[in-house]
Amino acid sequence: MLFSTSLVAIVGAGDQPQLSPRRLQVLNTKTRQIICELNFVTAILKVLLNRKRMVVVMETKLHIYDISNMKILHTIDTSPNPRAICAFSPSTKNCFIAYPAGGTLPSAGAAGGAPGGPSGSGPASAGGSGDIFVFDALSLHTVNVIQAHKGAISAVAVSQDGTLLATASSKGTVIRVHTLPKASKSWTFRRGTYPAAILSLAFSVDSKFLCVASATGTVHIFKLDLGAAGGGSGSGSAGSTSSSGYGLVASYLPEVLSQVWEPARDFAHIKLPSPGVPVLCAITPTFSPSPAIEQLSSPSSTHPSASSSSSQSSSSSSSSSSSASSSASSSSSSSSLAPPSSSSSSSSSSSTLSPVPSHSAPSSSPSGLKVLILTGDGFYYQYPLDPAVGGELKLAKEFSLLMEAQDGQEVSAKYV
Description:
By secondary structure, the protein is mostly beta strands. 13% of the residues lie in helices and 36% in strands.
């Protein structure tokens, strides 16, 4: 799904032609029209979107499309990537794609290997198994090759503004964050001593926190002090509970020794009830209602008969003015979120990509942070995060996606 708009990319998972994993449909959920339909030779593993580009990830290829007209722009030949390890920046200014190397370095050229494009471009040079290619989806060329780890890459993530890249190796003991695109600064964090598979990486909206979920049933939150990192790979630490003296000594040591010396640990952590299941994590702001919303939800506004006629008119005028300002801001937000209309030869007509209205975003202000966790066994957890305290986080809400109604009552959540 493209942010909060009505544009959704759908890939099947069945044996029937309309549910084939090689078939991609881009749908406008508001008008219920198919904008375009693309068929590929091999299975589609992942689809990534922002307001300018769409990236289709396959095992050995990346296809880049212009989202305004759904035309193929470029195809990248990659090393075998069955887990579809790839990150795409939501930003349209820093529009970077990060994916593991271990194969050939792509060069800018004609699109190929996808519907609507001729043959692809040739390789330029080779990269190591722990390297990351950074590809600019606007200029269509590789801007950097980052030497992130010694082992194979297991997870990558790009920040909301496209200026930071987080990586983890197959060992999973060290997490690194690099600036994009040149990797002039970097941070190194110690997740743990024993190896563990990293299942999910996610930045907060303001890029000050990084959430890391592993297969051991633990989720670590690292705090990034963006002004405290030094230049060069593995040379800085941020958000650790250690004293600044270690970082000062580590800056005078060789790179290998500084990474061993550096005791950067997590700022906060979570122990999940069920380890060993697939996990997705995220950090989002917690919004508190504005005074206008609180006034609309007050008893005097919901039960006007309990107040006098003068207070009724005052409350009515206040509610109407709040509603007018809310609708005006919502309409302006909708117009800014709506991407250009797109069409395809396989669809009968072009559709306007109208956004879905966001839920109270224009009339609320962030009051804190919360960590959201979705597990493969059907549970969704919420943990409040205090940016100034950290430590072990306590479960606030638990949702079961598989919970059934009991005694005729629908149960949707459990408050802890």
